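Hi U.,

Before I forget, here's the chain from the pilot set. I'm dumping it here mostly so it's searchable later in email.
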Amino acid sequence: MRPVVHNGERLGLRDVTEADVPALHAVYGDPTATQHLPFPPRSLDEVARLVEEATEAAAAEPRLLYVLAVVDRGRCDVIGVARLRVEADNPHSAEIGFGLHPHQWGRGIGTELVRLLLSFGFKQLGLHRVWAARSPANLPAQLAMLTAGMVEEGRIRHHLRTPDGWRDSIVHSALEDEWSDR
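Structure:
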Protein backbone atom coordinates (compact mmCIF):
# COMPACT_ATOMS: atom_id res chain seq x y z
CA MET A 1 0.00 0.00 0.00
CA ARG A 2 1.29 3.41 -0.98
CA PRO A 3 0.00 6.03 1.48
CA VAL A 4 -1.86 9.02 0.07
CA VAL A 5 -0.48 12.50 0.63
CA HIS A 6 -1.84 15.21 -1.67
CA ASN A 7 -1.41 18.86 -0.73
CA GLY A 8 -2.97 22.09 -1.89
CA GLU A 9 -2.39 25.66 -0.80
CA ARG A 10 -4.35 25.56 2.47
CA LEU A 11 -5.43 21.93 2.66
CA GLY A 12 -3.88 18.52 2.55
CA LEU A 13 -5.33 15.05 2.01
CA ARG A 14 -3.93 11.95 3.63
CA ASP A 15 -5.15 8.50 4.60
CA VAL A 16 -7.17 8.45 7.80
CA THR A 17 -5.64 6.84 10.89
CA GLU A 18 -6.96 5.63 14.20
CA ALA A 19 -5.68 8.86 15.78
CA ASP A 20 -8.12 10.81 13.57
CA VAL A 21 -11.25 9.22 15.07
CA PRO A 22 -12.05 12.11 17.49
CA ALA A 23 -11.58 14.75 14.77
CA LEU A 24 -13.65 12.75 12.28
CA HIS A 25 -16.34 12.24 14.90
CA ALA A 26 -16.52 16.03 15.25
CA VAL A 27 -17.77 15.98 11.63
CA TYR A 28 -19.65 12.66 11.36
CA GLY A 29 -21.19 13.06 14.83
CA ASP A 30 -22.39 16.63 14.33
CA PRO A 31 -26.09 17.03 13.36
CA THR A 32 -25.34 20.25 11.45
CA ALA A 33 -22.47 18.70 9.49
CA THR A 34 -24.54 15.63 8.57
CA GLN A 35 -27.83 17.40 7.81
CA HIS A 36 -27.50 16.75 4.05
CA LEU A 37 -25.99 13.27 4.34
CA PRO A 38 -28.12 10.13 3.96
CA PHE A 39 -27.42 8.95 7.52
CA PRO A 40 -27.90 10.32 11.03
CA PRO A 41 -24.94 11.52 13.11
CA ARG A 42 -22.52 8.69 13.84
CA SER A 43 -21.35 7.57 17.29
CA LEU A 44 -17.66 7.53 18.21
CA ASP A 45 -17.66 3.71 17.88
CA GLU A 46 -19.24 3.92 14.42
CA VAL A 47 -16.58 6.39 13.28
CA ALA A 48 -13.86 4.11 14.67
CA ARG A 49 -15.32 1.23 12.61
CA LEU A 50 -15.36 3.47 9.50
CA VAL A 51 -11.65 4.17 10.03
CA GLU A 52 -10.94 0.43 10.43
CA GLU A 53 -12.80 -0.27 7.18
CA ALA A 54 -10.89 2.55 5.45
CA THR A 55 -7.59 1.04 6.58
CA GLU A 56 -8.63 -2.34 5.18
CA ALA A 57 -9.73 -0.72 1.90
CA ALA A 58 -6.37 1.06 1.64
CA ALA A 59 -4.62 -2.32 1.61
CA ALA A 60 -6.84 -3.76 -1.12
CA GLU A 61 -5.42 -4.39 -4.58
CA PRO A 62 -6.61 -2.70 -6.67
CA ARG A 63 -7.50 0.08 -4.29
CA LEU A 64 -11.02 1.30 -4.99
CA LEU A 65 -11.80 3.33 -1.84
CA TYR A 66 -9.88 6.30 -0.50
CA VAL A 67 -11.07 7.72 2.83
CA LEU A 68 -8.93 10.76 3.47
CA ALA A 69 -8.45 13.16 6.35
CA VAL A 70 -8.74 16.81 5.30
CA VAL A 71 -5.95 18.66 7.05
CA ASP A 72 -5.59 22.41 7.57
CA ARG A 73 -1.95 22.74 6.53
CA GLY A 74 -1.38 25.88 8.60
CA ARG A 75 -2.60 24.40 11.89
CA CYS A 76 -2.07 20.71 11.04
CA ASP A 77 -5.59 19.96 12.32
CA VAL A 78 -8.01 17.49 10.77
CA ILE A 79 -11.01 19.61 9.76
CA GLY A 80 -12.95 17.18 7.62
CA VAL A 81 -13.15 13.97 5.67
CA ALA A 82 -13.12 13.21 1.94
CA ARG A 83 -13.95 10.02 0.08
CA LEU A 84 -13.13 8.91 -3.42
CA ARG A 85 -14.59 5.60 -4.62
CA VAL A 86 -13.35 4.22 -7.92
CA GLU A 87 -16.06 2.31 -9.76
CA ALA A 88 -15.17 -1.38 -9.85
CA ASP A 89 -16.76 -1.92 -13.27
CA ASN A 90 -15.38 1.34 -14.71
CA PRO A 91 -11.94 2.08 -13.22
CA HIS A 92 -11.68 5.39 -15.09
CA SER A 93 -14.55 6.92 -13.11
CA ALA A 94 -14.90 7.73 -9.40
CA GLU A 95 -17.42 9.28 -7.04
CA ILE A 96 -16.29 11.84 -4.49
CA GLY A 97 -17.89 12.98 -1.25
CA PHE A 98 -16.77 15.28 1.51
CA GLY A 99 -17.70 16.72 4.87
CA LEU A 100 -16.22 19.62 6.77
CA HIS A 101 -16.59 20.70 10.36
CA PRO A 102 -19.19 23.51 10.45
CA HIS A 103 -16.57 25.94 11.84
CA GLN A 104 -14.90 25.73 8.41
CA TRP A 105 -17.99 26.66 6.42
CA GLY A 106 -18.15 29.96 4.54
CA ARG A 107 -14.38 30.27 4.05
CA GLY A 108 -13.98 28.77 0.55
CA ILE A 109 -12.58 25.56 2.05
CA GLY A 110 -15.21 23.42 0.29
CA THR A 111 -14.20 24.74 -3.12
CA GLU A 112 -10.53 24.17 -2.39
CA LEU A 113 -11.32 20.66 -1.14
CA VAL A 114 -13.24 19.77 -4.32
CA ARG A 115 -10.35 21.09 -6.43
CA LEU A 116 -7.90 19.02 -4.39
CA LEU A 117 -10.02 15.88 -4.86
CA LEU A 118 -10.25 16.51 -8.61
CA SER A 119 -6.49 17.05 -8.81
CA PHE A 120 -5.90 13.82 -6.86
CA GLY A 121 -8.27 11.87 -9.08
CA PHE A 122 -6.99 13.18 -12.40
CA LYS A 123 -3.27 13.57 -11.65
CA GLN A 124 -2.49 10.78 -9.21
CA LEU A 125 -5.09 8.17 -10.14
CA GLY A 126 -5.35 8.87 -13.87
CA LEU A 127 -9.14 9.04 -13.84
CA HIS A 128 -11.18 10.30 -16.79
CA ARG A 129 -14.39 11.23 -14.91
CA VAL A 130 -15.02 12.32 -11.32
CA TRP A 131 -18.57 12.80 -10.13
CA ALA A 132 -20.52 13.61 -6.98
CA ALA A 133 -24.15 13.48 -5.86
CA ARG A 134 -25.51 16.08 -3.43
CA SER A 135 -28.74 16.81 -1.67
CA PRO A 136 -30.82 19.35 -3.63
CA ALA A 137 -30.95 21.45 -0.44
CA ASN A 138 -27.16 21.54 -0.05
CA LEU A 139 -26.52 24.82 -1.83
CA PRO A 140 -23.02 25.35 -0.33
CA ALA A 141 -21.93 22.01 -1.86
CA GLN A 142 -23.47 23.09 -5.17
CA LEU A 143 -21.50 26.34 -5.09
CA ALA A 144 -18.27 24.56 -4.10
CA MET A 145 -18.55 22.04 -6.94
CA LEU A 146 -19.54 24.58 -9.59
CA THR A 147 -16.79 26.99 -8.54
CA ALA A 148 -14.27 24.14 -8.58
CA GLY A 149 -15.16 23.42 -12.22
CA MET A 150 -17.69 20.61 -11.96
CA VAL A 151 -20.77 20.65 -14.20
CA GLU A 152 -24.28 20.00 -12.91
CA GLU A 153 -25.61 17.03 -14.90
CA GLY A 154 -29.08 16.51 -13.50
CA ARG A 155 -31.31 14.98 -10.86
CA ILE A 156 -31.65 11.35 -9.80
CA ARG A 157 -35.11 10.99 -8.32
CA HIS A 158 -35.46 9.10 -5.03
CA HIS A 159 -31.78 8.22 -5.18
CA LEU A 160 -31.09 7.66 -1.48
CA ARG A 161 -33.09 6.52 1.50
CA THR A 162 -32.46 8.81 4.47
CA PRO A 163 -33.82 8.75 8.02
CA ASP A 164 -36.47 11.21 6.75
CA GLY A 165 -37.46 9.16 3.68
CA TRP A 166 -36.36 9.07 0.04
CA ARG A 167 -34.19 11.90 -1.22
CA ASP A 168 -33.32 13.05 -4.71
CA SER A 169 -29.69 13.74 -5.62
CA ILE A 170 -28.19 16.32 -7.93
CA VAL A 171 -25.23 14.93 -9.88
CA HIS A 172 -22.13 16.98 -10.75
CA SER A 173 -19.11 15.81 -12.74
CA ALA A 174 -15.78 16.88 -14.12
CA LEU A 175 -13.98 15.29 -17.07
CA GLU A 176 -10.22 15.05 -17.35
CA ASP A 177 -10.08 16.76 -20.76
CA GLU A 178 -12.30 19.67 -19.63
CA TRP A 179 -10.75 20.21 -16.20
CA SER A 180 -7.86 22.52 -15.52
CA ASP A 181 -5.84 22.67 -12.32
CA ARG A 182 -6.66 26.18 -11.08
